Amino acid sequence: MESVRVSAQEMSSTTLRPLPKTRLPRRSEERLAWMMLAPVLLALLILGVYPALSTIWFSFQQGGFFGIDMTNAGISNYLRLARDPQFWSAFRFSLLFSLVTVPGQVIFGTALALFANRQFPGRWLVRAAILCPWAIPTVTSSVIWAYIFNDRYGLVNSILVHLGLMDPAHPINWLGSAPLATLLIYALAIWKANAVVALLVLTTLQAIPKDIYEMVRVEGATAWQSFWHVLLPLLRPTLIIALILRTIESWQTFDLISAFTNGAPGNSTQNLGLYIFVQFQQFGDFAYGSTIAVIVMVIALVFITLYVFALFRAGTR
Fold first, then answer.
1. Is 60 exceeded by the pLDDT of residue 281?
2. CA distances from 92 to 89, 251, 260 (A)
3. Domain CATH number, residue 106
4. Is 24 contained in some domain?
5. Cross-strand pairs, 72
6. Cα(213)–Cα(191) distance, rounded to whole angstroms?
7. Is residue 12 part of a domain?
8. Cα 305 from Cα 120, distance rounded (Å)
């Protein structure tokens, strides 16, 4: 088992070792490379940097809309944010949503990938089925789930009534209860996005040489030992990338919650993305909504920094 572990570590370090330095391209080739990169860099500036800087600028304004008749407000929007209980409620929900759904997506996605990587008849059908939740538009999935868990006409309550497990006169109000609605949102988010993680992990598993699996089989390692000491070190960079992507997405979630509960009951399932939309649509307060968006952007940058640092450390081992 030790030899297999060493081989896996050597393979991981080999795959992550930087390529040897090559001769610098000629000046004309450099110019051509920059010309080809220019459209991409311009698109990044227009679609990424400019909106981010504009959002930060709007967060220090008040009144008006989209920069029209706005006046400088200093840090008043941020002070208002600190005293806003609804913001902190949305922040708390977003935090719990991220802490629950991201690990759930990574764990279930990895398990699905390990299962789909096995040799058995009909494996292609399993792989296609794994991608089905991800292929369905998020709004469509959320609306379907909302109908499934409807208290009067939902499929789940209907099944419970037919099984004699529920009184038809007293149906379970799944989306009318804050704890139940929250748990269903967690389940929907994990079911929806674990396919993305499964696809990333399955791609990495397919790239692992078959010699590694043969050595594990010869050493007589158990399934758990094979995963923990051999596969997990090789999957670590992929899992970190999956964590980065899913964490950022979890803090930016809007359509899933909007179409499923729209923050109900009350505001108990309202996250930061939905709260930003409420500020824009319901109150027309573009400056305050931009302030909340800046907070979400800072949180995403913090997680990106932490995960990239962890990825760098994994690559230098």
1. yes
2. 5, 11, 19
3. 1.10.3720.10
4. no
5. 61
6. 30
7. no
8. 40
How distant, in Å, are the alpha carbons of 26, 30, 33, 176, 209 from that of 23?
9, 12, 15, 66, 31
Q: What is the pLDDT, as a whole number, of residue 15?
A: 47
Q: Could you read off the pLDDT of 174-194 as tens digits, one per residue?
A: 999 999 999 999 999 999 999
Angle made by CA atoms 247, 251, 255, in degrees to the nearest 5: 115
pLDDT tens sequence across 33-62: 888 888 888 887 888 888 889 899 999 998
What is the percent of the chain with per-residue pLDDT over 70, rounded to a whole number?
88
CA distances from 42 to 50, 95, 135, 274 (A): 10, 34, 30, 30
Torsion of CA 308, 311, 313, 317, to 10 degrees: -160
pLDDT in tens, 118-166: 888 888 888 888 888 988 999 999 999 999 999 988 999 999 999 999 9
**What are the CB-based long-range contacts (under 8 Å, 24+) for 139-147?**
139/255, 139/259, 141/188, 141/192, 141/256, 142/188, 142/255, 142/256, 142/257, 142/258, 142/259, 142/260, 143/259, 143/260, 145/184, 145/188, 145/260, 146/175, 146/259, 146/260, 146/261
* Enclosing domain of residue 279: 59-315
Count: domains in the chain = 1
Position 309 in a domain: yes
What is the reported pLDDT for 16?
47
Chain-centroid distance, C-alpha 49? 21
Residue 232 included in any domain: yes
> For the whole model, what pTM was predicted?
0.83
User: What distance in Å separates the CA atoms of residue 113 and residue 120, rounded to the nearest whole number?
Assistant: 14
How far apart (Å, rounded) are the C-alpha atoms in residues 50 and 42? 10
